[in-house]
């Protein structure tokens, strides 16, 4: 049986090349390595202005990744001075990815910006600047924890982590404000929302970057293992009955 294929979203950046500055697809290897470590096959999707029909055809799961800020226009606000690296093309592309993944019933892991985007798509908004006094941008290596997140008993995330407390890294200056429709909070650090799940989807959203902690913390690797396992179940469900039982 083939390993499930996981789509990974990516940033757009202009990169200096031998041909001059070129628009490029940029994504660090940590997401792909996390998928590989969990037994899946990673594939990075470029954010394109022309969004193809059926962009997720043949995929079994989706990771909405971290990156620059989401345009506040999407939740009806003007940008604060601290908003950075907004990319309308990426926003629009990933919104379509999310919508298609929902229609197909794909399992979704949304990290940092990805979790924020899910909240915005579902009618929520963002706190454009979490108080610097809260200390949600760490100053030591990304695989090391920065704070603890308290998980909701009975949540899918608590089942995955096998605990009600999980150590996480932290690289965000924004956070969830009003919660989107059909979402529930399953992880907090104080009054900061750190994790969400959905009533109508196989979705886990986390505010941290588990991809950088996979090799050091079992609970973080478990997020990728869970995604790949759910993706494998999805792939199996898409096979004709005669193939499923052959």
Walk me through this protein's architecture.
- By secondary structure, this protein is α/β, with parallel strands linked by helices.
- It has one domain (5-244): Class I glutamine amidotransferase (GATase) domain (Rossmann fold, 3-Layer(aba) Sandwich).
- The chain contains six helices and 13 strands.
- It has helices spanning 30-37, 88-104, 113-121, 156-161, 218-237, 241-244, and strands spanning 5-9, 11-17, 20-26, 41-45, 61-64, 108-111, 126-127, 147-151, 165-168, 175-176, 183-189, 192-198, 203-206.
- Strand 12 (192-198) and strand 13 (203-206) form a beta hairpin.
- The longest helix is centred in the last third of the chain and has 20 residues, at 218-237.
- The termini are close together.
Give the structure's gist in a few sentences.
This protein is of the alpha/beta class and 246 residues long.
Descriptive labels:
Rossmann fold; nine-stranded mixed beta sheet; alpha/beta; 246 residues; globular; two-stranded antiparallel sheet
CATH topology: Rossmann fold
The mean pLDDT is 92
The fourth-level CATH homologous superfamily is Class I glutamine amidotransferase (GATase) domain
* Largest beta-sheet details: 9 strands, mixed
Through-space gap between termini: 11 Å
Beta-sheet strand percentage? Answer: 25-35%
- CATH architecture annotation: 3-Layer(aba) Sandwich
Quantity of strands, as a count: 13
H/E element order: EEEHEEHEHEEHEEEEEHH
């Amino acid at each position: 049986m083939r390993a499930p294929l996981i789509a990974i979203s990516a940033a757009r950046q202009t990169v200096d090349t031998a041909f001059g500055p070129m628009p490029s697809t940029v994504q660090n290897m940590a997401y792909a390595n996390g998928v590989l470590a969990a037994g899946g096959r990673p594939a990075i999707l470029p954010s394109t202005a022309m969004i193809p029909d059926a962009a997720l055809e043949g995929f079994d799961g989706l990771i909405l990744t971290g990156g620059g800020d989401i345009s506040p226009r999407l939740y009806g606000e003007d940008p604060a001075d601290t908003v950075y690296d907004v990319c309308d093309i990426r926003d629009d592309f990933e919104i379509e990815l999310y919508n298609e993944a929902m229609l197909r019933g794909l399992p979704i892991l949304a990290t940092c910006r990805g979790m924020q985007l899910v909240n915005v798509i579902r009618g929520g908004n963002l706190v454009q600047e979490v108080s610097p006094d809260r200390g949600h941008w760490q100053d030591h290596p990304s695989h090391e924890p920065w704070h603890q997140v308290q998980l909701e008993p009975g949540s899918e995330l608590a089942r995955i982590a096998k605990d009600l407390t999980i150590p996480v890294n932290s690289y965000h200056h924004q956070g969830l404000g009003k919660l989107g429709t059909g979402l529930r909070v399953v992880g907090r650090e104080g009054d900061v929302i750190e994790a969400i799940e959905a009533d109508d989807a196989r979705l886990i959203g986390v505010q941290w970057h588990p991809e950088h902690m996979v090799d050091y913390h079992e609970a973080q690797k478990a997020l990728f293992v869970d995604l790949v396992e759910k993706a494998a179940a999805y792939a199996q469900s898409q096979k004709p009955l005669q193939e499923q039982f052959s």
